[in-house]
């Protein structure tokens, strides 16, 4: 990720040991590792959402191309596949909207709980 070798890690550990001391160093390491995990998790979530959006966009483009070519006069099997594509695109779009609503609700709940804790 950051292209840090073993010697750099040892140097950072020694500097941390001198600056923080042996009592505070473990808690500082845990805190930094928590931050790194949170950033990695955030990056993974963003990447997943982008890939879902791209897949949804590709499905929509495929549907538009099919409609532009007026493929409704083709076999029933092909028409059924087009309907399946439309249904999949709709489901994917709905699931993305539901994720956004859930995240907003969770964020609102978290901020409300934090405000209640601060008020106490």
TrEMBL record:
Pfam families: TatA_B_E. One of its GO terms (cellular component) is TAT protein transport complex. GO terms for biological process: protein transport by the Tat complex. The keyword Transferase does not apply. One of its GO terms (molecular function) is protein transmembrane transporter activity. It is a single-pass membrane protein. It is found in: Cell membrane; Membrane. Keywords: Cell membrane, Membrane, Protein transport, Translocation, Transmembrane, Transmembrane helix, Transport. The Tat system comprises two distinct complexes: a TatABC complex, containing multiple copies of TatA, TatB and TatC subunits, and a separate TatA complex, containing only TatA subunits. Substrates initially bind to the TatABC complex, which probably triggers association of the separate TatA complex to form the active translocon. NCBIfam families: tatB. Belongs to the TatB family. HAMAP family: TatB. PANTHER family: SEC-INDEPENDENT PROTEIN TRANSLOCASE PROTEIN TATA, CHLOROPLASTIC. Part of the twin-arginine translocation (Tat) system that transports large folded proteins containing a characteristic twin-arginine motif in their signal peptide across membranes. Together with TatC, TatB is part of a receptor directly interacting with Tat signal peptides. TatB may form an oligomeric binding site that transiently accommodates folded Tat precursor proteins before their translocation. This is Sec-independent protein translocase protein TatB. It comes from Phocoenobacter uteri.
């Amino acid at each position: 990720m950051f292209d840090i070798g073993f010697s750099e890690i040892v140097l950072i550990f020694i500097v941390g040991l001198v600056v923080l001391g042996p009592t505070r160093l473990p808690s500082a390491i845990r805190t930094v590792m928590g931050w790194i995990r949170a950033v990695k998790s955030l990056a993974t979530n963003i990447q997943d959402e982008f890939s879902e959006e791209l897949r949804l966009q590709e499905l929509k483009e495929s549907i538009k191309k099919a409609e532009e070519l007026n493929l409704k006069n083709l076999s029933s099997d092909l028409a059924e596949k087009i309907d399946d594509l439309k249904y999949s695109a709709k489901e994917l779009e709905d699931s993305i909207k539901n994720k956004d609503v859930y995240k907003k609700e969770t964020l609102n709940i978290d901020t409300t709980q934090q405000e209640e804790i601060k008020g106490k």
